[in-house]
Specification:
The structure is a homodimer.
Chain A: E1 2-6, H1 10-21, E2 25-30, H2 36-45, E3 49-53, H3 54-60, E4 63-66, H4 73-80, E5 89-92, E6 97-98, E7 106-107, H5 115-122, E8 127-131, H6 137-141, E9 152-157, H7 160-173, E10 178-181, H8 187-193, H9 195-205, E11 210-216
Chain lengths: 218, 218
């Protein structure tokens, strides 16, 4: 199918590459129609890969992945255009990381809002589903690289059918075995607020290539 | 040994009960020296159990557990007295949960501070270690009730020897198999920011009796 991937960073490239490998027609979107990183990716990815502006990509895609940097996501999605994304499912993979003061990044979390909700407010007719932001780019599209895939992915969004579609994508395309629905889009607060722990675990484990498995009594 | 447990709620009672079972002399501290919940607990717990004010308990304990409600913790620890806790290890189990507007509680998280750090600033000569706030009270002192204990506890604090002592307590007294050191006390931001995800997982799993296992590639 035709898919928009917004963002040309590590996450955008990992998602786009996997989607092309699965046979989809992927347009990578960025601020300009002639992005160097997107061009380099097209050279490697081959058939099915193209690029355009955020708006070009949003028009192209039947579904869209937001892989832009968190601090730039709202602006990028406004450039993509609410009309171009109307009625479509948008998987929001972003994290509110502020690298302006160096490493580690400051994580812009709070009790009452999240990037996922900001995107849903900016795109009221788009079905935003927050997901995949809790693992590194490689693990997003190949969870089996960690503990044979025996760990959890989460999602949150207001539209039940959109969450059903995203669950199919996570399971069928990327190979996630365990997907937990955390409720409406305000669950994006919880998924983004996990990032400070994720960053500390990276430090403790000396690798970003990890995930968490939820275990319960009974 | 002589131990202070500050707080008479579910967490304070679970910790105190376990410590008395292990043979320790536990004084439960609260605002008053004649707290009804503490008295009820002493009746059940028997030998080794006593109660007093926050200050009485802080004087009594060679180490102390902060099990007070997060929004009241700084005030409670000031009442306990910086002098009474000087040089001692304080395990901070609190979470910044605001129940004033009903359920679910608002979690007072942010990028630049945490309860653990507020307590360390209020008690500069006490060795504060943030831990145990990521699971329910029963699992804190009996992690084997979940997945045979195959999941993780975390800690954060500025003093390496204090973290070593707390790791011994978690492993030796409570039975934790996996303890991860997340660095200095600013790691409390990460542990407290996990709470919104914890609350959502409770909703999704329909039980608070769960934990997370960290799994990595390799």
């Amino acid at each position: 199918m035709k898919i928009a991937v917004l963002g040309t960073g590590m996450v955008g490239e990992a998602i786009s590459t996997k989607l092309v490998q699965l046979g989809h027609e992927v347009m990578m979107g960025s601020r300009t129609a002639n992005n160097e990183k997107a061009a380099a990716w097209i050279g490697k990815a081959g058939k099915g890969a193209s690029q355009g502006t955020f708006a070009d990509a949003a028009r192209h895609g039947e579904i869209a992945f937001n892989c832009t940097a968190g601090v730039a996501s709202v602006e990028a999605l406004k450039a993509a255009g609410a009309d171009n994304l109307k009625g479509k499912v948008l998987l929001d993979l972003s994290n509110p990381l502020d690298f302006s003061k160096g490493m580690p990044p400051r994580v812009l979390i709070g009790p009452d809002d999240s990037l996922g909700e900001q995107l849903q407010r900016a795109l009221p007719d788009t079905r935003v589903v927050k997901t995949l932001n809790t693992v590194n780019a490689m693990a997003m599209v190949d969870p089996s690289r960690i503990a044979s895939g025996d760990h959890h992915m989460f999602l949150a969004g207001n539209d039940a059918s959109a969450k059903g579609r995203v669950t199919e994508i996570l399971r069928g395309w990327f190979g996630w075995k365990h997907v937990l629905d955390l409720g409406d889009i305000t669950g994006a607060r919880a998924l983004e607020a996990y990032l400070p722990l994720w960053l500390r675990l990276w430090g403790a484990l000396q690798t970003p290539d990890f995930s968490i498995k939820v275990v319960k009594n009974g």
